[in-house]
Amino acid sequence: MSRVVAVYSEKGGVGKSALAGGLVAAARAQGLPVAAGDLDPRATFSAELGISPDEAPAFTMNDLLALDPEGASGLASDAFTPASDDWPGVRVIAAERALANRESDNTAVGLEFRLRLALNGALTHDEVAILDLPPRAGGKLVTAALVAATHVVIPATLDEDGRIGAAEALATIKLVKDLGMNPSLNVVGIVPSIVPGGRNSLKTAIGDFLSETYGELYRPDLAIPRHSIRQQTRFACVPITSATGPESKALQAAYGKILDATGTTA
Question: Could you tell me which PANTHER family the record lists for this protein (predicted)?
Answer without folding.
Answer: COBYRINIC ACID AC-DIAMIDE SYNTHASE, P-LOOP CONTAINING NUCLEOSIDE TRIPHOSPHATE HYDROLASE
